[in-house]
Specification:
- The structure is a single chain.
- The chain is of the alpha+beta class and 301 residues long.
- The protein has 10 helices and 10 strands.
- The chain folds into 2 domains: 99 residues, no CATH class; 112 residues, Ribonuclease H-like superfamily/Ribonuclease H (Nucleotidyltransferase, domain 5).
- The protein has a 5-stranded mixed β-sheet, sandwiched between helices. The protein has a 3-stranded antiparallel β-sheet with strand order 1-2-3, with no helix packed on it. A two-stranded antiparallel sheet has the order 9-10.
- Strand 1 and strand 2 form a beta hairpin.
- Helix 3 packs across helix 9, helix 4 crosses helix 5 and helix 5 packs across helix 8.
- The longest helix is centred in the C-terminal third of the chain and has 18 residues.
- The N and C termini lie far apart (55 Å).
């Protein structure tokens, strides 16, 4: 009998979310506990001498008289959307393996499409890793075309497609990115930026642009000759990641613009890298607390 893969039991579920974060006050209390678990600190002068005002969850610094709330300087600053709806949106985005569309978010939260679209992109922006560690051990690298079909053009037409590249550390994390082309220099720069120089091995397919990236560590599988696995050499892990992404595009988003492709890749990367993290919802909240707000005009320019 085949052993079933153990799935990570998440600390949060939809019923617990509704019970613990159903009101604005409950959400604010949760954010305060995450942001200031060692006591409230003034974001202006970093003083710990703080007074709580009786109304509107406002604090005042006794050192510089600066007034602030738990949302000051975070992605939640000046939001007009109730915090319980923020919490539901965050939960749905981290829990949905194939992502959730802005249209579905609109219906679930009972908000406008513009609000739902902007909300999803703000959360995606916060998911982006600022300083990811280098991948090590055995690393698989592959690239893929992303884009829809076009009528009345040949099978090899790429005019409506863009290239995404990815690297996965075996049993570890992934790095995903949109790139301008599949030229050797572009692929090498990606590998150099995300794969440690002392990594054990780099596995790719037989695409010629990968030739010479590191002859001592680089091995390939010849997909053009229907070779998919040779001993331990394969690119199945990264291909599975891209397969999941394309199912997300087909089944949830339906279409993804080239402009925002990196944002959707960041979202998948965050979920994939935290696939065994039972506190994914909590850690995503922490990311949002530490993230600056993404303005609508910046997103749409």
């Amino acid at each position: 009998m085949r052993n079933k893969k153990q799935t990570t039991k998440q600390d949060m579920n939809i019923m617990k979310l509704m019970e613990e974060f159903g009101t604005e006050d409950e959400c604010r209390d949760a954010l305060e506990a995450l942001r200031w678990h060692n006591g409230v600190i003034c974001p202006h002068c970093e003083s710990k001498s703080i007074s709580r005002l009786k109304t509107h969850h406002i604090y005042e610094c006794n050192s510089c008289d600066y007034q602030f709330s738990v949302m000051t300087g975070t992605i939640f600053h000046d939001t007009h959307l109730p915090l319980p709806k923020w919490f539901v949106a965050i939960y749905l985005m981290v829990e949905s393996k194939k992502g959730i569309s802005a249209n579905q978010m609109k219906r679930t939260l009972n908000v406008s499409y513009k609000t739902a679209w902007y909300l999803c992109h703000r959360i995606r922006n916060a998911m982006m890793e600022q300083n990811p560690k280098m991948l090590d051990g055995i690393v698989e690298v592959d690239e893929t075309w992303v884009g829809g079909k076009r009528e009345h053009v040949g099978h090899g037409y790429k005019g409506n497609k863009v290239v995404a590249i990815g690297a996965v550390e075996r049993d570890g994390e992934a790095r995903l990115q949109k790139i301008d082309n599949r030229e050797k220099e572009t692929l090498r720069n990606f590998i150099k930026s995300h794969v440690a120089s002392d990594t054990k091995a780099i596995y790719t397919d037989d695409f010629p642009a990968y030739n010479g990236i590191d002859d001592a560590k680089h091995e390939t599988v010849n997909h053009s000759a229907d070779e998919w696995v040779r001993g331990n050499v394969n690119t199945n892990s990264i291909e599975n990641v891209f397969s999941l992404f394309k199912r997300s595009v087909m089944g949830s988003y339906h279409k993804v613009s080239a402009k925002h492709l990196d944002a959707y890749l960041d979202e998948l990367e965050w979920r994939f890298n935290n696939r065994e993290n039972p506190y994914l919802f909590r850690d995503t909240l922490l990311k949002l607390i530490k993230s600056d707000n993404l303005e609508y005009k910046e997103l749409t320019k």
